Amino acid sequence: MKKNLLVVIGLIGSLNLFAQNEPTVMEIDGKPVTKSEFLQIYLKNNNDPKFDKVSMDEYMELFKKFKLKVAEAESLGYDTIPKLKRELEGYRKTLATPYLVDNETNNKLVEEAYRRSKTEIRASHILIKVDENATPADTLRAYNKIMALKKRIENGEDFATIAKSKGGSDDPSAQQNGGDLGYFTAFQMVFPFEEAAYNTPVGKISNPVRTRFGYHLIKVVDTRPARGTIKVAHIMVAVSKTDSAEVIDAARKKMDEIYQKATAGESFDDLASNFSDDPGSNGKGGVLPVFGSGSTTRMVPEFEDAAFNLKNIGDISAPIQTNYGFHIIKKLEWNDLGTFESMKKELQNKVNKDERSKQTQDSFVAKLKKEYNYKNLSKKNLSWFVENVDSTYAMGKWSASKLTTDKPLFMIDGKTFTQKQFGTYLEKNSRAAKKMASKDLVALQYKNWEKAMIIELEESKLEAKYPEFKALMKEYHDGILLYEVMTDEVWNKATRDTVGLKEFYAVNKENYRWDNRMDAMVYECLNKDIADQVFKMIQNDTINSKHVLDKINKTSELNLRVRTNKFEISQTPYLKGKDLKKGINKPYEFEGKVYVIKVNELIPAGVKELNEAKGAITSDFQNKLEKDWLESLGRKHPIKINEAVLYNLGTK
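Above: the chain's sequence. Below: its structure in token form.
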């Protein structure tokens, strides 16, 4: 149902602020919808807009339904529900991010990210874990440990051996890979790690790098130009590390057979559908998400290498083995790294969400201070905190209750921020503090608090300063309300109202019918010889389908496939139009395969039971509930359409 929310957001589009004296297209509950607002939404949702009366009337019907539902949600107080307010606030925080950075610094980071995206780095690392907020003693202990490991490497010991050894890397994967991280590019590692990797020459080892995970030593092994992104399909025969040699050998043989068929011209889609063990792709012809340089999707190195080594579109790799099993890979599409202009927006979004965006905040806050006439009054008025913050602070037990004054600490934009406000901040953020001298601790926390307050001030002004931000918040506000009210009034009601569902089914059951069906066991054979063997074997009632499969597929897993079901004949291509009788029917060929059908029962056309068509019946019941609901909303929330404006939207 979240999909419905996306549809809603697509409908309402990016609204804008409009002048109060603009012509009004419609009113709902006396609230106007301006010509510009309606026109912007209409144009966004119509690539080939038409302004004739028929087109305007059709779109207005959709728009009225949307407005009615939002109006009802507001009248029921959905916009005051704490859960929904928190959800909207969460969206607001995310949407506000691009407006709370120094654009000049931000642009430089975007350009740097693009330069880095052109190069892939292969690196290994050794990690010594230490918490972000560890005490100075624990931090020093971790630092000394990683420096000792660095010295051993500089004295000639092997990096991978040290990573694997007892007392070596704290990264569990090092036991298998010696710290090897494979190739990566911008945004695929935490920013401090990326920064160090791109600034360390090939063959060299970085100085200790601090990230939120701890200290790292990074050895850059290789660099190469970015390989771009690739789209492939694959067929997988699954094996695991615990499988016996016999099972692995059988899987290898099966993959070799599939490979021979694929390279002989058989449909890769069909082979993937019939034989691939990857449930995520076998229903899509084996097609996988795009992966490669800068993509969020990564494959295991041996799979990526085999894919990128394919030269031409349509080429198929020889079988390869990964930890997941055996694969063959078909190249479908390849794209080189895009131009900076084509990637700029995507890179901008990544920078805004990445740790590197923190670099822009200090310069952004400095600009806000100038814009809003900042005055620093903290020099004397922080002394109480220096004198009173003690060892209980790091334990979360410190309180500002003894603070008797409320002197100003800074002023900005005519607002004063005081000692008590800072004291409250200290109480709530003690866990994030490191154990350090009182003076240094207070200075650090004051800097954090001041920056947070100034950014919060600017965030509170976004709707007034940026019309497009206000429009975006309106979009999310209406989308959230619409999703929730539809959930309560239509979607959930249809699934919970079992009595209503049964009554709806009773009235409309003739709309849900089976065509002629057969209860059958289908033997899909590779060729006529196999079909003849199967036909002969199943004449013996003591032989079941497992016996048949074991014998026929002894030489190849591709020889025979068995399905048992109640098949709707008109919807099953290899059964449609065949004169099949109850019992065992003679083999026949269809689209390159030979079928032997054992019919247990021929079932005449008839009405489906409720449980047999519950999905379709529930969907239709939802549509009825929504239709009835909208009719009642139309009576509750009066709408007036200004046809003179509506039918002249295409004119200037």
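DSSP finds 25 helices and 21 strands in the chain.
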